[in-house]
Amino acid sequence: MVYITRREQFSAAHKLFRKEWSEEKNNEVFGKCSNPNWHGHNYELFVTVKGEQNPDTSFVANLSTISVILREKVISKLDHKNINLDVDFMKGKTATTETLAVEIWKQIETPINQLGCTLHCVKIRETENNYVEYFGS
Amino acid sequence: MVYITRREQFSAAHKLFRKEWSEEKNNEVFGKCSNPNWHGHNYELFVTVKGEQNPDTSFVANLSTISVILREKVISKLDHKNINLDVDFMKGKTATTETLAVEIWKQIETPINQLGCTLHCVKIRETENNYVEYFGS
Amino acid sequence: MVYITRREQFSAAHKLFRKEWSEEKNNEVFGKCSNPNWHGHNYELFVTVKGEQNPDTSFVANLSTISVILREKVISKLDHKNINLDVDFMKGKTATTETLAVEIWKQIETPINQLGCTLHCVKIRETENNYVEYFGS
Amino acid sequence: MVYITRREQFSAAHKLFRKEWSEEKNNEVFGKCSNPNWHGHNYELFVTVKGEQNPDTSFVANLSTISVILREKVISKLDHKNINLDVDFMKGKTATTETLAVEIWKQIETPINQLGCTLHCVKIRETENNYVEYFGS
Amino acid sequence: MVYITRREQFSAAHKLFRKEWSEEKNNEVFGKCSNPNWHGHNYELFVTVKGEQNPDTSFVANLSTISVILREKVISKLDHKNINLDVDFMKGKTATTETLAVEIWKQIETPINQLGCTLHCVKIRETENNYVEYFGS
Amino acid sequence: MVYITRREQFSAAHKLFRKEWSEEKNNEVFGKCSNPNWHGHNYELFVTVKGEQNPDTSFVANLSTISVILREKVISKLDHKNINLDVDFMKGKTATTETLAVEIWKQIETPINQLGCTLHCVKIRETENNYVEYFGS
User: DSSP assignment of E13-61, as one string?
Assistant: First the structure.
């Protein structure tokens, strides 16, 4: 069993807030992240896949193929977008990095596993100080 | 003459567009950066100051003092904000990194130079692939 | 279960030596790290916490709150300090990065877990070539 | 149990291809990585070792000793070399990062474990977007 | 006058040697970089352009356009290639980073300057310890 | 004229204080950097040299030779040392990064220039937020 990781990036706007809460309550819970006019980040996405090496190629999976999947299913939907407004799989959800990791997992689990390997981890680096990892359960 | 540099960071939303132009024209010129719903970045700001060493402290200037100026004049206005909507010194301007560097220069030139040194460069890193530098003229 | 990580930094002096040993013996075991006049590092601290997402906030825990705990319990005691001489929780201990990771774990386990999540890992990067991780047992 | 990691680096040439396959087939499977005239990378190697802290030194193991092992067994054979042509432990193998991680594990497992600790992970970063990890089985 | 910089990357093989010299002489001068079987690097290319801001766009030049030029004129010729064997503009030249910077300058000076700005600097990072910059004369 | 840069690193302890001043005055001017028990950093040193390319080697200078000079004249004196107590060329001086850059310049100017090139810049990165550059006058 070998683990391989692909890094991709996207630049997006978002805010943290709940419609059910007042602006004061949102500000109390989410602080500056609740700015009504949005803010944004350069996000780094690290997707880790595990599996046996293919005896013909010595690959667990071709990282170029994984990159194609990530770009189609995730990056094209998030890059230079508003996470709260523009992203189908984030509609109606709070745009925390935790939720983003869980929802990205759902988008890519099937196509990744169809390559004959197993999705292991979705990691997102929101800033150089803040990271989130999700392992599927 | 010695040059000293302080790095600060801010996370902000923006879009590139001109009100005078149609959405098509904006998209033609600015591409995905013109997304009407905004996108965002983790910006890194590098401010370089030059001067003689103070014979008492051996400092050109105390980088902690420069950091206080940058936080008051720049970072507090940009961090977790929308550059187009929330930032007084960017009102009515196109939110390119070039303009941001020039306008940040204007905000900090006087308070930096009052420390007895000379503002030399404002550098902004928008993504790991894109940088802008402004030297004041 | 989602894992979230907060990075903090501190710059500190230390040396590796045992009082029971001669300077020669210390030098033989710890090499240049035993320099009697100290040396120092920019340490990076990565603290990983795991838990379920709070249904109200979508957070495992607010990383700003974790940062406040880390600054109060760890960074304020280590930053711009001498690890051997100035830090209460390192008194009488050899100042290796391994011991530092274990002792930082002890300082933060209770306040982190009181947030309703579970401390998972304390990781310290001493130089760009040397890292230590501790998972609590 | 504490985990410690040492980073080393090497710059090497390689290509991905199977002698049994035509150039077209190699190009179809391995893409630009199959360029007959080679290409190359700055590889980063991260070796993680786990164990109890030695009560005399507070070390799991001296990272300087681990560095000496890595340089003798791995780096001296790979740095400024051709992975396909010059490296004894890669002879006859496809030079993917996956295979490189597995074969480096075999080179260092015995000497690392003789230090009284246990080899835990061999991680290789081939580019800033591609990583491989191997945990020994 | 504002300066803007675009970063691109390429992974390539090369060796340092002169055909006129014996293998011993090449080894004496170029050390491990003269390995006959090649070695390689992940190169980072930073291209800096200077100019006035366009009053319509606020850009000095669109960094996407500069990226297209760099990919067409430089990256497509160097990425996953052998610098000594595969690259037209390096034929018959010693493949030092100095020469690479000068020759990349020649490839891009005309198309960059046709954008209405001025090529200022070609910088190449060969490893995390070695950089070269060329300013055109 | 081409510019080449070599990066080296050292880990050292220091403090900022003047003997002529009281502890209160030192604390007022230098803040936490004046901690009597020292603190420390992982310093990065970037030395830039300029010159014409040697027609035989295509090098401005061999960066391996520059590295040997830097290690002998600078790194061996600073690495795992106390800048205030252990370093001959810093004796009696305030250990700011500005002074360190100027004094390192003096140590290496002659041996670098004897290689047939010209010392251009000494840059020191003290932390990821603080840098100093010195160009020799």
Answer: EE----TTS-HHHHHHHHGGGG-TT-EEEEEEEEEEEEEPPPTTT--SS
